[in-house]
């Protein structure tokens, strides 16, 4: 296990408790929407299902951009109507 992992986990929990993260419920409708969006992606885009769910959540909640260092999410963001911003 990485030595900094416990520290990162504590920071994550504190950030969550302080309301830094906006948690969205995942229901059947959201999963269906994410799957539909994945089926419409260009065949040259690679996107993991969890990343598609992340992008779908952002798009469905009206976000304009997604901030990430994940190159696959950045490439797929426009297909979800989002601006991909590199961290």
From TrEMBL:
Pfam families the record matches: PIN
Signal peptide positions on this chain: none
Every PIN domain range: 24-74
Superkingdom of the organism of origin: Bacteria
Official protein name in the record: PIN domain-containing protein
Organism field: Roseimicrobium gellanilyticum
